[in-house]
Write a structure and sequence with these properties.
1449 residues, eight-stranded mixed sheet, 74 strands
Length: 1449
């Protein structure tokens, strides 16, 4: 970044960036209060917003060390500028300075802190007479930032005269006002006084005669009379000459009064005010919050005399102040890059500190610990300020990659300054409450854990740096402040607090000696350091720095910048590794500080790709996330592309710009495999293009185990750490010697082992793998030797090799992915002919210990020898680490059955090899389920859950078929095709590219039933399956009646199962605009498609998004609604499948009710009783109305006898809108529904959907699930399911219910088609009292209450007492001066916990809460918490409902 582009440079040069304006009549006001809480921030921000709206350039200041108020200042000014632009209220008049109010600042610097962004806005600057150390520094800082502004508003802190102690004005707003000669605008809370306001103002005038009290504003006043009394009292004292501004000798001016207006007030929390935009998640949310300041500005215009205040501020005699010297040179050209943590969690910085860094040559580079995936490249240091990490602890924990980057940067010796919240972020964990588990932080400070407390620690401090401080010179000193509600725990188990002390040998706890500015305080040590990281609770003020005597005088910022440059990790690094094995070797040599760049596949150790190293090379294919077939297809395309070009292979994407910046003197290359790493040709070509042909290219391409040791020495030599290389080789050989000695004790000949390093096609890796097998006491089944090439195998070669053991370890594939791809083996008959398969000697092993020729190959030898030859593991910890790396095939499912093999559940036959205390013996054919420990089962996702969960699915073993393509607008229906087991049929839909589909798939249940499905780890990866727990997708190769073009490709269609057939109707055609009718059938036994040829002359018109149900007892299909491309439909058609005839059903007379036209609704059939079937229609998009939540019922009286009068069906049909108790689901469309049960025991389940009125994209998704239940003694009522997960956040999906199991699959989440991969979503609907339901029974159903509800109500009758309140709530209520604070707190607690009564602390009587009163009509007794507005009490009728949120009665 060049000097002119530095975003912090603009504030330093101030007015030079804006149009010329005269500074002689600049307005300067100090806004202070009599105490905290009187509304001075409200007044200050209101004035800023109002003046900005008038077109003035406003510069905000804040007295004292506070950070938050400044964010509100900036947000208020932003709101004012926005309103001025929107309303086009340009000021055309000239102010007294002779300048136009239209003058706009040409440009300021972009805001980086606090979440508010604007390209033309000034930043709030702190003015603190104590921390700055002198009046001169206060004046210089003010003049530097005030230059170019029309209005300068300085908000005070606490009360006007409150300072660091009781005898001086150091640090007070009064001190700043006197230094600048600025008038004070005193804010007084007038809610409890009138004439006394004058007495209070007079006292402030007499207390310090040197201070100018220029005007008074009263806040929270009543009506006009109240304001008049205050004005009269102030005027009278002014006329007496006692209450006057000593700067102008005029009476103190009464500027106005503000009413109590909660809509314009600013919320608070434990560190002061809430951040201005912390609840704004988007532009709309930002606008809503800025509207608060807009209302405040309007309130100021209407209530305050702004023109007089402007004149008062212009009386500040700025010309009497010492003038700021003209800079002799421009800001320094950036010479280092400092990363600044910048987001909602870290936003507390002194602006002058940042500007001092810029002046010292730092380029400040923002990053977000909440949102940034990685640290910015080429950083020399980090500055992590304070903020609110406790409010964002889970989000910080979730951003693992950034936390790893920060830790790696610290461990690499990079300079890090962490203040308060930054220190919390660098700790190991953060406890935000005693009821929630801790959130993991960066772990830079070992053994340090932080917990939040209700106790505040706040004070100024004199700070001296000790010799243990890695950033700043010993004996140098500065000033700072401390303000936090947390403490350090040395032991998170016992919660023992510590005073910044640590027992860790590599963690220093004395980088600071501080003297708190408190009575009787003595010096104490503080802070932590490790490597070049310095963390403490103190916010340092850089400009107050006094360097060590006798050394060259430098500022604190200059010392920080110099330390960052000296210890910069990326400046020390000079090597780039294009080989993952070389990267592994470098870390094993502990020489990673010399490594500047790696490739995207250098993933071991995990910190290899973390800062300060940069990824300078990416693979064009992400093999880890692709199937073996997809990898092979991608490589074919790359090879084909290469055939048409010249030059190097070009498979990899090299960042030549970054490579040129690094200027490596050493690069590591390979020529073994251009899939795992870039080829040496690619790298050398890139070096030449960057004019780096003199770089030393070191070949790291071993093909044998001995070649590995040679490569280690070569890498060590290139990095000048040869002794470390020799030591590493010696250690690895000693480990191999241990294995050899252990093998000497094992009887029997070497096992013949075949390992498959690829499944599509089948291939062996060759190279070092034969050496590994031999070193592990085995031999290669193909008789390969070390150094041989990899090659593709045929099944004939595999059968001829007749291995004793088969190892399956595809390159770049985790065990989970390998298990998901075993259908590639199971589909081949030859696989089942192998004797090792028949004996169960098949293992799936993680590729990581075998795929790369690094030091981990030795661990691979140890693993193979342990698994295949039975030697002991090197250590218990090593065996524990291998737990998820090895899985063994079992032929039997229980101890008493003979060996059996299952093609569709092959992956489920593999169990963890290292499970429990005893390892399975090689050659044992039986590993019963009991041998799998509970821990292993939990690891593999078998923990029982009644909520919605993602479940494992395997693929059909027919060769060539994959999983169903991801899709939406499809149909799922339960069918019975083979025996008594119910499977699920999938047909049609729309893929992620908008292509219509006509394929048919069957989802077979797990062998142990649908309820046995194995859970998967949502968002992380699928779990390892267990026997009988996985369902299986099978693609159905369907036939068709000759010469018929069926099935039609379609989406948004309707489907119904009708005995041995499924009937499909409607939908949208391949062009997405043509509605279809195309009634078609699939015979489930023969899997034959045909057109549904019907009799008669009429049939339903084409449409998309209709509903279709099947009435089994009448053998009728009922069609309703849809969209024909022009308007919605509400026609009703019945297909008699005995007559094969469509008939349209209409109203018998005009008085009949009928649902409106609608589309995107759902319908299910309910067998209500022995004589009535009922079609239930829910939701949908109603013509002219939009999404709805209506439930319509079509009752269908069943025909008795054998006589069929088809024309009279309508006389047996009746529509009515079902009356349902509240609460109910919100309006929605494109949801999915299914029904379970019949009669009174039925349940209709609805899931998901969308409502465009709530937003667009994902913002419109409705992520919930509901059940509609019914009984004859009450209205139908909704119950909300306690489900969660991304399976809910979608629309245009489909669902089936089998027994009590709900199966969901596919859909659209508002941004993309859901990619389920090898999984489905499963939930359970059992009984009304099941714990997966959040039961919400409406008032109308109280005549019938089940036992579970009665039990809940009895528990609610226990009154809430004072001792039930949380300690902090009780303490707050007891401190409050508001009337009734205790009983209000009790009532809030009772309502929040669903309790009917509480014990009034004043009377001891039991009082009803609104929980109870809302369940019954108004009694007329004027109950304290009556929600009905006393409707039966004469003279107290209140028309509006009393809200319980504010509890103002």
């Amino acid at each position: 970044m060049v000097n002119g582009d530095n975003k912090y440079a603009d504030q330093e040069i101030g007015g030079s960036m804006c149009s010329e304006i005269e500074q002689t009549r600049q307005c300067v006001l100090v806004v202070s209060g009599t105490s905290s809480g009187v509304g001075k921030t409200t007044v200050a921000t209101g004035l800023m917003a109002a003046f900005a709206k008038r077109g003035y350039i406003v510069q905000p200041f804040k007295c004292g060390p506070d950070f938050l108020d400044g964010m509100h200042h900036e947000a208020a000014i932003r709101a004012g500028e926005r309103d001025r632009k929107e309303t086009h209220q340009d000021l055309n008049h000239k102010n007294e300075t002779g300048t136009s109010g239209k003058v706009e600042e040409k440009n300021s610097y972009d805001n980086m802190l606090g979440g508010v962004t604007s390209s033309s806005r000034r930043r709030c600057v702190n003015l603190d007479g104590w921390m700055m150390g002198s009046a001169k520094e206060v004046i210089n800082t003010f003049q530097r930032h005030a230059k170019g502004a029309h209005v300068c508003i300085i908000e005070g802190a606490m009360g006007l005269h409150d300072s660091r102690d009781g005898v001086s004005d150091d640090g007070s707003a009064a001190q700043v006002a006197k230094i600048l000669g600025a008038p004070v605008l005193l804010v007084i809370d007038g809610s409890m006084m009138a004439r006394s306001v004058a007495a209070m103002a007079l006292g402030y005038t007499l207390y310090d005669p040197e201070m100018r009290l220029g005007a008074v504003i009263t806040n929270k006043v009543g009506g006009k009379a109240h304001i008049q009394w205050i004005a009269e009292a102030l005027q009278l004292e002014g006329e007496k000459g006692r209450l006057k501004d000593v700067g102008t000798d005029k009476p103190v001016y009464f500027a106005g009064a503000l009413p109590h207006d909660t809509s314009a007030s600013i919320p608070e929390r434990h560190l002061g005010l809430a951040m201005p935009l912390e609840t704004a998640n988007d532009e709309k949310g930002t606008a809503i919050i800025l509207d608060r300041y807009t209302r405040l500005a309007a309130l100021m215009e209407n209530s305050i005399d702004l023109d007089t205040l402007l004149q008062l501020g212009q009386s500040c005699r700025l010309s009497d102040l010492p003038q700021l010297p003209t800079p002799q040179h421009k800001l320094a050209t950036p010479k280092c890059r400092i990363g600044i943590a910048d987001d909602e969690a870290f936003c507390f910085y002194y602006m002058d500190n940042l500007l001092e860094l810029v002046k010292s040559g730092a380029e400040l580079v923002p990053f977000s610990p909440l949102k940034s995936k990685n640290l910015p490249p080429a950083l020399d240091g980090l500055y992590i300020g304070g903020g609110y990490p406790e409010l964002h602890a889970k989000a910080l924990e979730k951003n693992v990659t950034l936390r790893n980057d920060v830790k790696s940067f610290c461990n690499s010796g990079g300079v890090v300054l962490a203040e308060c919240g930054g220190k919390m972020y660098l700790s190991e964990s953060l406890f935000t409450s005693k009821d929630t588990p801790p959130s993991q932080m960066c772990g830079v400070l070992p053994g340090i854990h932080i917990r939040m407390t209700p106790h505040m620690k706040m004070y100024y401090a004199e700070i001296e740096f000790t010799s243990m401080n890695p950033l700043f010179r010993s004996k140098g000193s500065c000033r700072g402040q401390k303000f936090h509600f947390s403490e350090v725990m040395s032991d998170p188990v016992t919660n023992a607090p510590t005073d910044d002390q640590s027992t860790e040998t590599n963690l220093c706890s004395s980088p600071l000696i501080v003297v708190p500015q408190l009575p009787g305080a003595t010096p104490e040590s503080a802070g932590f350091t490790i490597h070049n990281t310095f963390a403490s609770y103190f916010h340092l003020y850089f400009a107050s720095y006094i360097p060590t005597s006798g050394v060259q005088k430098k500022s604190l910022a200059e010392e920080f910048v110099e330390s960052a440059i000296v210890h910069s990790p990326h400046r020390k690094a000079y090597a780039v590794s294009f080989v993952s094995a070389a990267t592994e070797i470098i870390f094993a040599l502990n020489a990673q500080f010399k490594l500047a760049g790696v490739t995207s596949l250098c993933d071991f150790p995990p910190q290899a790709r973390c800062a300060p190293r940069q990824i300078i090379c990416h693979s064009p294919i992400d093999a880890a996330s692709m199937t073996s077939e997809e990898v092979e297809e991608a490589m074919k395309e790359l090879r084909l592309k290469k055939q048409n070009t010249s030059g190097p292979p070009g498979h990899w994407l090299l960042d030549t710009k970054t490579l040129a910046k690094i200027q490596p003197s050493v690069v590591f290359v390979q020529n073994t495999c251009d899939i795992c790493d870039p080829s040496s040709d690619d790298v050398l070509h890139a070096l030449l293009s960057c004019k780096l042909d003199k770089s030393n290219a070191v070949l790291v391409s071993p093909t044998t185990l001995d070649g590995l040791f040679e490569s280690i020495l070569n890498v060590a030599t290139a990095l000048d750490v040869l002794e470390s290389g020799r030591s590493l080789v010696k250690h690895l050989r000693e480990r191999l010697d241990r294995v050899e000695k252990e093998l000497a004790k094992v009887e029997g000949s070497r096992l013949r082992v075949l390992s498959l390093e690829g499944l599509a096609p089948l291939c062996v890796g060759g190279n070092w793998l034969p050496d590994l097998k031999y070193a592990a006491g085995c031999k290669d089944a193909l008789c390969d030797i070390g150094g041989c090439s990899s090659r593709i195998l045929s099944w004939d070669e595999i059968l001829n090799s007749d291995p004793d053991v088969l190892l399956i370890s595809p390159c770049s594939a985790s065990p989970t992915r390998t298990l998901n791809e075993l259908h590639l083996l199971a589909s081949a008959p030859e696989f089942w002919k192998l004797r090792c398969v028949q004996r169960g000697e098949v293992y799936v092993i993680d590729h990581e210990l075998f795929a790369r020729p690094g030091p981990r190959l030795v661990e691979g030898v140890e693993l193979l020898a342990t698994v295949l030859r039975g030697i002991s593991a090197p250590s218990p910890d090593t065996a524990e680490a291998w737990k998820d790396n090895v899985f063994k095939y079992q032929c039997q499912t229980n101890e008493n059955e003979s060996a059996s093999h299952c093609t569709t559940e092959l992956s489920a036959r593999f169990v963890p090899f290292f499970s429990g205390d005893k390892l399975p013996q090689r050659g044992s054919h039986l590993v019963p389920k009991e041998s799998i420990s509970d821990g292993a089962q939990l690891t593999n996702g078998m923990c029982k859950s009644r909520g919605l969960r993602r479940c494992k699915v395997t693929r059909c073993t027919i060769s060539g078929y994959q999983l169903p393509p991801s899709r939406s607008a499809h149909c799922l229906v339960p069918v019975k095709r083979n025996g008594n087991k119910t499977s699920i049929l999938l047909f049609g839909g729309e893929d992620s590219n908008g292509k219509r589909l006509g394929d048919t798939w069957e989802l077979h249940p797990p062998s142990n039933g649908w309820s046995a499905a194995t859970s998967a780890v949502d968002g992380v990866g699928l779990s390892i399956p267990l026997i009988g727990s996985t369902s299986t997708w099978e693609h159905l190769s369907c036939g068709k009646v000759a010469d018929e073009s069926v099935p039609t490709l379609r989406s948004n269609h309707a489907i119904a199962v009708c005995g041995d057939y499924i009937v499909v109707f409607g939908g949208w055609g391949v062009d997405n605009v043509t509605p279809l009718s195309n009634c078609e059938m699939l015979h489930l036994e023969s899997l034959c498609w045909t057109h549904c040829s019907t009799r008669g002359t009429v049939e339903p018109s084409p449409r998309g998004n209709p509903s279709l149900v099947y009435c089994k007892r009448e053998h009728h299909v009922i069609l309703f609604g849809g969209w024909n491309g022009v308007h919605g439909l509400n026609d009703l058609w019945i297909l008699d499948m005995k007559e094969w005839r469509w008939t349209e059903q209409t109203k018998c007379d005009e008085s009949d009710i009928w649902p409106s036209e609608r589309t995107d609704h759902t319908a299910v059939l309910w067998e209500k009783n022995s004589t009535i079937d009922c079609m239930l229609v829910f939701g949908g998009n109603v013509q002219g109305k939009g999404p709805c939540s209506e439930v319509w019922a079509l009752e269908y009286v069943l025909q008795r006898g054998t006589t069929r009068e088809f024309s009279k069906i309508e006389s047996r049909l009746q529509w009515y809108q079902m009356e349902v108790g509240s609460p109910s689901p919100s309006a929605r469309t494109s949801h999915t529904a299914a029904l379970i049960g019949k009669g009174d025991a039925f349940k209709m389940v609805i899931v998901g959907g969308t409502d465009s009125s709530q937003g667009v994209g994902r913002g419109s998704m409705l992520s919930d699930a509901w059940v509609l239940s019914y009984n004859e003694r009450s209205l139908p009522f909704w119950i909300k399911l306690n489900w969660s997960g991304s399976g809910l956040e979608r629309c245009r999906h489909s669902m089936s219910i089998i027994d009590s199991t709900v199966i969901l699959w596919g859909g659209y989440n508002g941004e993309e088609t859901a990619n389920e991969k090898a999984s489905v979503w499963q939930g359970e609907v059992i009984n009304n009292d099941d714990d997966s339901l959040e039961e919400m029974i409406p008032n109308e159903t109280k005549a019938y209450q089940d036992q579970s509800y009665l039990t809940e109500r009895w528990e609610a009758e226990i009154p809430v007492r004072l001792e039930d309140l949380p300690e902090d709530t009780l303490a707050k209520a007891e401190r409050s001066k508001l009337p009734g604070a205790l009983f209000k707190a009790l009532h809030r607690h009772a309502v929040a916990n669903n309790r009917d009564t509480y014990i009034d602390p004043a009377s001891g009587y039991s009082v009803f809460s609104q929980v109870y009163l809302k369940r019954r009509p108004c009694c007329g007794n004027a109950c304290r918490h009556c929600p009905h507005g006393y409707i039966n009490v004469p003279g107290k009728n209140i028309t509006c409902d009393i809200e319980d949120s504010d509890l103002e009665w």
